[in-house]
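Quick review question:
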């Protein structure tokens, strides 16, 4: 970054750089200024962003990038035009993580560049991981002032430097397990090495072994060349096993061997290959119950669960909801070129009282949606209509007890005495009251005919 200008230097194996130009043109950033350059020779100018569009790992630009990342403070991004698994794996093994397949990942590349340019730091440091500056995962940057989340932060501070300690992160879906894993990695001595994120549930059982351990050429019919496994690609970095509870017993046994002996053997291989990665695992399942049900190995559980971090659900972090909301508003203001400066009291009350079953991820998605739909500078309650429809009647009555907003109905019932038929009648009566006694309007709101409403009310007169 030079003064108030960011230089983006583009190097390409081909003459077609239209996709990269498209990405830069869609960046909605006024400050700093962005200057797109196409130097004829590869050169290093401190803090420039470098985009390399390559066709193969033998590209001269790959060799130059490897030299550069050892000594410079540049942000290096690779762009490839075909989903070449071998090429991507090779780049990851060389220590690069910012790799985008276009045109499929154009939106991700736009967001990625926006985040880099808007970092407040003057330095955009390219470490060996090739990722964003480690400030992105700074421990102090974790948002939360609730007592339960502060405990999580304290544990992270204590263990980040203990690279030989296995960590297991527990928590419901959407609580931020991946963020915590990346934060531990980014604040450890291993931060200059790769962070390999493996979503275990996303890999079919038939492919899991080859993905984790790799294979040699000729190991099976379609194995035309050697494939490096993810455990091997992690090198001296961090291997994050997300959704650990979805791994089969067969893979569990092989994973346990690798962890205990610190070696892997590729499919079709004849020698053991040492691994030095740190293991961090995460799950939203009750592994202890799965052990009792013979669905998970107790020895693997105890090996991986040396330090346990339990992330509290968002409904137990009331103090953090508005803090997170402000963070997401700032993020999406930048991404969408908006200038939302806050929310009204109805939104505040809704945010604080909603149960957030999807936790932080649901809150983030809701704020993103609200900002996209809002046409003024303040978030209104109607932009959260999707969440309002998901709420159960009893939840709504609790959430808006004081005061009750016009669009809600309070139903306080003894569930052991009120049956479904009685509940239907009571609800219909409340809607009729909201419709000011106008039966045609009430029937339309209830989604039934006027005669059906008359019959419902007539049969159940007290």
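Suggested answer, residue by residue:
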């Amino acid at each position: 970054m030079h003064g108030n200008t960011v230089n983006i230097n583009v190097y390409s194996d081909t003459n077609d750089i239209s996709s990269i130009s498209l990405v830069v043109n869609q960046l909605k950033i006024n400050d700093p200024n962005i200057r797109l350059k196409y130097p004829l020779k590869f050169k290093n100018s401190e803090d420039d962003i470098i985009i390399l569009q390559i066709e193969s790992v033998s590209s001269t630009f790959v060799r130059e990038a490897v030299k550069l990342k050892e000594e410079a403070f540049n942000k290096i991004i690779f762009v490839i035009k075909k989903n070449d698994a071998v090429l991507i794996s090779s780049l990851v093994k060389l220590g690069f993580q910012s790799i985008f397949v276009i045109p499929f990942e154009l939106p991700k590349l736009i967001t990625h560049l926006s985040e880099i340019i808007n970092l407040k730091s003057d330095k955009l440091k390219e470490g060996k991981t090739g990722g964003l500056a480690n400030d992105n995962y700074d421990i102090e940057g974790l948002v939360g002032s609730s007592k339960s989340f502060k405990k999580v932060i304290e544990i992270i501070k204590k263990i980040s430097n203990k690279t030989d300690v296995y960590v297991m992160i527990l928590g419901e879906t959407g609580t931020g397990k991946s963020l915590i894993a990346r934060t531990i990695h980014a604040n450890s001595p291993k931060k200059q090495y790769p962070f390999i994120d493996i979503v275990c549930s996303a890999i079919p059982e038939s492919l899991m072994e080859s993905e984790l351990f790799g294979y040699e050429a000729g190991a099976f019919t379609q194995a035309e060349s050697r494939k490096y496994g993810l455990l091997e690609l992690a090198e001296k970095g961090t291997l994050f096993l997300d959704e650990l509870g979805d791994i089969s017993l067969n893979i569990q046994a092989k994973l346990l061997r690798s962890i205990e002996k610190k070696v892997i053997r590729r499919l079709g291989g004849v020698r053991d290959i040492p691994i030095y990665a740190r293991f961090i695992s995460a799950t939203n399942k009750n592994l202890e119950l799965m052990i009792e049900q013979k669905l998970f190995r107790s020895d693997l559980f105890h090996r991986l669960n040396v330090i346990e971090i339990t992330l509290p659900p968002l409904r137990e972090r009331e103090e953090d909801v508005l803090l997170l909301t402000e963070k997401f508003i700032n993020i999406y203001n930048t991404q969408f070129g908006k200038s939302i400066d806050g929310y009204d009291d109805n939104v505040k009350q809704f945010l604080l009282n909603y149960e957030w079953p999807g936790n932080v991820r649901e809150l983030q998605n809701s704020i993103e949606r609200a900002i996209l739909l809002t046409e003024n500078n303040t978030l209104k309650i109607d932009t959260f209509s999707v969440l309002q429809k998901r709420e159960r009647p009893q939840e709504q009555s609790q959430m808006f007890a004081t005061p009750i907003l016009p669009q809600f109905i309070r139903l306080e019932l003894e569930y052991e005495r009120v049956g479904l038929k009685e509940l239907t009648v009571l609800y219909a009566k409340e809607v009729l009251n909201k419709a000011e006694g106008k039966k045609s309007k009430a029937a339309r709101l209830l989604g039934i005919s006027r005669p059906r409403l008359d019959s419902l009310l007539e049969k159940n007169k007290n």
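Why it works: The chain has a mean pLDDT of 81. Residues 318-336 form the longest helix (19 residues).
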